[in-house]
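Worked Example 4.2. Read the sequence first, then its structure tokens.
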Amino acid sequence: MRAKKVIVIHVRDDVEKEEFMKEVQRLNLSAFVYIHGKLDSLKVNVQGTKDEIREAIRAIREAHKRVRGRLYPDRKGLFTYYPDDIFREASANISLPILLKTLELLGETVETKEDYIKTSMPWREIVDLVKRLSQNLEQIALQTTRQIREVVVPVSVAYDIDPEELLDMLVDLGLAEYKEDKFKYELIKNKEQALKELLEYLEGEEDEDRGHKEGGEPA
């Protein structure tokens, strides 16, 4: 027997409304859902069997919770993101370790939970960040192993350095080598040590450049 139920979803502004509508459209629901309303109140009409309605309302409320989590920070100033939501919005697919390390290198606060992350970076910024990471990843994907990508890609974005230049830098520093038989760059040291030494080198370069600027050009 089919039934009908109406729930009201409150939104703060048009941005939240649009994000919520997008999330509902992505849901694969058995029930028929129709949403209408003005200003800050949206009426959600759900039609179907009792079980279909119950499942649809649960999914719709969860979608709204996810939207609010990524648009509005909590008391600690952190936004809540489900990685799949970010990757889908950015139309990109990168590994979570690459994203987390990049956020860390950019000085953002990051907390990892079981199936979501909390960070100080706002929604549109993190979506744009993932797009940039994806572009840099694509540039070196075929010639690198997963381990070296997790070093190069975050650093390339955080320090605004071409990823291929970083590959050469890793080789010059004795942290990686190019395997002719595999046509791939591989790390010689473990990922954590390679990243540590690469960052120390880059920070040393920055300090040297800063020293030259402060000291001025010789007469």
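Now turn to a second chain, presented in exactly the same format:
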Amino acid sequence: MNKTIFLLLLSSVLFFFHAFALTSVKSSWNPIMDVKDPEWIPIKDVKDPHVIQLTEFAISENFRRTKHILKFVTVVKGVFITFPHDDKFITYQIVFAANDGGSSGNKNYKAVVNELNSGLELAGFIPCEDDFYKCNEFLHI
């Protein structure tokens, strides 16, 4: 009888430690970052026709959404990233100068454009003067 009680107590204690160990491992587990994670790559040629096409798409899509008229002036800087699991998906962050026809002259804007198999998608569009930090956030150049 003593052996039975001892084994029962031992198994319940071991079960408790096993359950506690699993709970603590699950809550503190973080995935190991892949050393081959993609990085933002600077756009070297801001006068590249493809970059200009992406910027003009962003301006026209923003107009479609907001009715805010902008005239493209030039690309200031930009970065892009491709994802290793899907090389047909590229995200661009482009800072460009545009004129809204006002007397204040050119203003800088930031557009985030996704280039997909199915076409282009405007993921973000902000005036840089409104929030300089957001305009340079994630723009690793």
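Notes for the reader: The two ends are 74 Å apart (CA to CA). Residues 41-136 form a domain with the Nuclear Transport Factor 2; Chain: A, fold (CATH 3.10.450.10).
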